[in-house]
From TrEMBL:
One of the record's GO molecular function terms: aminoglycoside N-acetyltransferase activity
Protein name in the entry: Uncharacterized protein
InterPro entries assigned: Acetyltransf_17, Acetyltransferase_Eis, Acyl_CoA_acyltransferase, Eis_dom, SCP2_sterol-bd_dom_sf
Any one GO biological process: aminoglycoside antibiotic catabolic process
Superkingdom as given in the UniProt entry: Bacteria
Source organism: Streptomyces ruber
Eis-like acetyltransferase domain residues: 45-154
Length: 222
């Protein structure tokens, strides 16, 4: 996704950031793993980063001297988000500067707004480009003109494949109501195929006529 600072303005009612500070590479080696762990799995699709990930991925990047900048947002309860970016000059125009955001995580809308406001206010930047952002990126709804945010491509980041349908269905919670019969078809794992009677307090296999039939891939999406 790309945003152009001269067009992308956050609406006045969007909360202003409390504090955004820049930290150096050595500080980030100790701070970012703790902050990432504190943020937790704050949205579907977020993947854990063990200590080995930071050692193999982040520390070499810091020591490479490629110029990655780390901005950390702090809210009422402490640090609650961060963004990693590089300032890059265009090959066809030395005066054009693009801010390439390579990592962005924020625990709440206030942190999202604060970090984006900071990124859009960096001096002399003509374009802010962010990779691997979710399709429901919050900043689009925060802009006075949503057209100032332009998405150029979509790519898969995480695929889910159910391998134990009965267990997956039973792990979910359901509202109280009439029983519902769901039929699942799984050509790869036949043991998953069959009809399941779903009630608020549990799931069991049944031979009754299903009310809805879907393939296992469709179930994984919901």
């Amino acid at each position: 996704m790309r945003l152009y600072p001269h067009e992308a303005r956050l609406r006045p009612e969007v909360p202003a950031h409390r504090e955004v500070r820049l930290i150096d590479g050595e500080t980030s080696i100790g701070l970012l793993p703790r902050l990432y762990e504190r943020l937790g799995l704050y949205r579907p699709g977020v993947i854990e980063r063990p200590a080995s990930w930071w050692k193999a991925k982040w520390e070499p990047l810091v020591h490479s001297g490629k110029g990655d900048v780390v901005a950390v947002h702090s809210g009422p309860d402490g640090d609650d988000g961060f963004a990693v970016y590089q300032a890059m000059r265009s090959e066809d125009s030395g005066a054009r500067v693009t801010l390439m955001v390579t990592d962005f995580h924020a625990a709440n809308p206030q942190a999202v707004a604060g970090l984006w406001r900071f990124l859009l206010d960096v001096d002399l930047v003509e374009e802010v480009c962010a990779r691997r952002r979710p399709t429901d990126e919050l900043v689009e709804g925060m802009l006075a003109d949503w057209r100032a945010c332009r998405t150029h491509s979509f790519n898969d980041d995480l695929w889910l494949r159910l391998v134990d349908v009965p267990r997956a269905l039973d792990a979910r919670s359901y509202r109280d109501g009439d029983p519902f019969i769901l039929e699942i078809t799984d050509d790869l794992l036949p043991a998953n195929s069959g009809s399941f009677r779903i009630v608020f307090d549990g799931v069991e296999r049944t031979g009754k006529q299903p009310q809805l039939s879907i393939i296992v891939m469709a179930l994984a999406m919901v």
